[in-house]
Amino acid sequence: MAMKHIISIIITVLCSLNLFAQTDSTFYIQGSVGRLAARLQLPQSDTNKKLPVVILCHGFMGNMDSELFDDISADLVAKGIGVVRFDFNGHGKSDGEFQNMTVPNEIEDAKEVIRWVRNQDFTKNISLLGHSQGGVVAAMTAGELGNKNIKSLVLMAPAAVLRDDALRGNTMGAIYDPWNVPEYITMPNGLRLGHDYIVIARELPIYETASRYTGPTFIIHGKADRIVPYTYGERFKHDMKNATIRLIDGENHGFTVDTAKNAGIAADWLYKELH
Questions:
Q1: pLDDT tens, 175-188?
Q2: pLDDT digits (tens, 9 = 90+) for 170-218
C-alpha cells in the first residue's frame, strides 16, 4: 500500500476517534499531477458531531503557509469550523513543476481535495475560500460543482485579470508575445511559466463558469490593489447571482496592511453563513 494512502487512512481513523482536537497535521492528497501537501486543522470538540469545513486555495506563486491563511485558519478554528489548506501542483511542498501548472489542473487539484474532505467522518459541509488566482480556481470550481457540493464561497482579490494579462502579454512583469508564446517565459523571480498556462488563460471562461454557482458568495477586495484592480472583484459581484462585496480602503493585493482585520472579515462572514 502506498505511503500516501497509509497516511490518509491513519488520519481518517484518528478523526473518527476524535483524537484531532486542535490538530494541525501535514499530509498528502493525490492531485492532478502528483501529491498535494495539505494541512488539516480542526477545533477542539468533546463530541463526534460533524463540522463545516473550509478549504483554502492560495494564489499564483504562493503557498498554503501565508500569514493571511494562518490568521484565517486560526479565526475559523476558534469559531468551531474545520480548515483544510494545501499547496497546488508546482507550488510549496507539492509535487509537480511550476512550468506545468495551469488554472484547469489547479481546478482538478481543488476537486481532489474536496473529494478527500467529503469522505471524512467529521465533514458536515464544504466551503471554499480563495485568494488571488486561488480565488479564480475556487470560483470556477464552485461553478462546476454547484450548490449541492459547495456550501459557500469567499473570494479575496480574485485574479480574473490573469486572462487579460495573457492577452496583453504581461504576466506579473514578465513580457512576451501572447500570440507566439515560447515553451516557457521566465518570471522576475526566476520561475518558469509554461506555454500552456498562457495559451489556456487567453480563453479561460472565468466569469461564465463562476456565474453558474448561485450559493452565498462574499468578495473582499482592496481598493489599493495594484496587481488585480478591485473592478475585477466588482465584476464577480455583478455576474454571480448571490454575491456581496466589501471593498477595503487602502488595502493591497496581499491584504498585508491589516492582515488580521481582513482575515477576521472573511472568517466572520463564513461563521454567519455556516452557523
A1: 999 999 999 999 99
A2: 999 999 999 999 999 999 999 999 999 999 999 999 999 999 999 999 9
Cell 489556456 belongs to 200
Q: What is the pLDDT of residues 133-152, one digit of tens each?
A: 999 999 999 999 999 999 99
Nearest 5°: the CA angle 184, 187, 189 is: 140
In the numeric block, which cell numbers belong to residue 191? 520561475
Residue located via cell numbers 474545520? 82
Find the radius of gyration of the CA atoms of the chain.
18
Q: How far is CA 206 from the centre of its chain?
A: 15
Strands, DSSP E only, in 135-216? 153-156, 170-171, 174-175, 184-186, 192-194
Strands of the 153-156 sheet, one edge to the other: 23-30, 35-42, 82-86, 51-57, 123-131, 153-156, 217-222, 243-248
68-127 pLDDT per residue, tens:
999 999 999 999 999 999 999 999 999 999 999 999 999 999 999 999 999 999 999 999
Burial class (CB within 10 angstroms; exposed 0-12, middle 13-18, buried 19+) of 23: middle
Sign (positive or negative) of CA dihedral 178, 182, 183, 189? negative
Q: Which three cell numbers stand for residue 227?
A: 496587481
243's enclosing H/E stretch is: strand 243-248
Q: DSSP alpha helices (H): ranges in 17-155? A: 67-78, 103-118, 133-145
**Which residues 6+ apart lie within 8 Å of 157 measured at CB?**
131, 132, 135, 220, 221, 222, 225, 227, 228, 233, 253, 255
Virtual torsion, Cα 227, 230, 232, 235, nearest 10 deg: 180
